[in-house]
Design goal:
203 residues; single chain; 8 helices; mainly alpha
Length: 203
């Protein structure tokens, strides 16, 4: 293979070597997820471990958001199933929940005793601001994964803007935003993919 082909080839995607490695990775993600784990999951799964490409992460995160339950749990269930089937899903779920659950139970006891202290209230406000910043940074990175989206740049940008306006500005419940924008977007994407895959369609 010549140098031009090597340059054009996508970066190699790795995979977890065992269910134990998957469990440990999910535990590491969970222990860093104060206030939200989107940025942490993306860094660990895409940038550091390279178990998913940016495009794969965006697709699976989108599916995780529309399924019932916590987004990150849905995501690691799909990730575990991708590599090890049902046992991988169970290992990933245990990793994302087991140790954090013990820590949260301990923190609840402490919080009930010290919640009224100004230093505790200030620390919680500070963590909330930091979590918002992390989520914003992760969202900017995720936009890069939409570069080759079948919907195209104009529709994708419009959907992002409308979603922000509905949820952040107009306070529309998330379920209605998903149904109102997500369903039409899925239908448009399905129609375009169908045309692309039709016999005789131009590549």
């Amino acid at each position: 293979m010549d140098s031009t082909a090597q340059t054009a080839a996508p970066a190699a995607i790795a995979r977890p070597h065992s269910k134990t490695e998957l469990f440990v990775a999910c535990t590491v993600i969970a222990l860093q997820g104060f206030g939200g784990v989107l940025a942490i999951v993306q860094r660990e799964m895409v940038d550091k471990r390279r178990w998913l490409t940016r495009a794969q992460f965006v697709e699976e995160w989108a599916v995780a958001q529309i399924l019932p339950g916590p987004n990150v749990v849905n995501l690691v269930i799909m990730l575990g199933d991708r590599y090890f089937g049902i046992r991988g899903s169970l290992a990933a779920t245990a990793g994302i929940l087991a140790l954090p659950l013990c820590i949260v139970l301990g923190l609840v006891v402490l919080y009930n005793n010290f919640a009224d202290l100004p230093v505790v209230q200030g620390a919680l406000r500070g963590m909330g601001a930091a979590a918002a910043g992390l989520i914003g940074a992760a969202a900017i990175k995720m936009i890069q994964g939409l570069a080759g989206n079948v919907l195209g740049g104009a529709i994708t940008t419009g959907l992002i803007g409308l979603t922000f306006a509905l949820v952040a500005l107009l306070r529309v419940p998330l379920i209605w935003a998903v149904l109102g924008l997500g369903v039409p977007a899925c239908l448009i994407a399905w129609a375009r993919l169908r045309r692309q895959l039709a016999p005789g369609a131009k590549p």
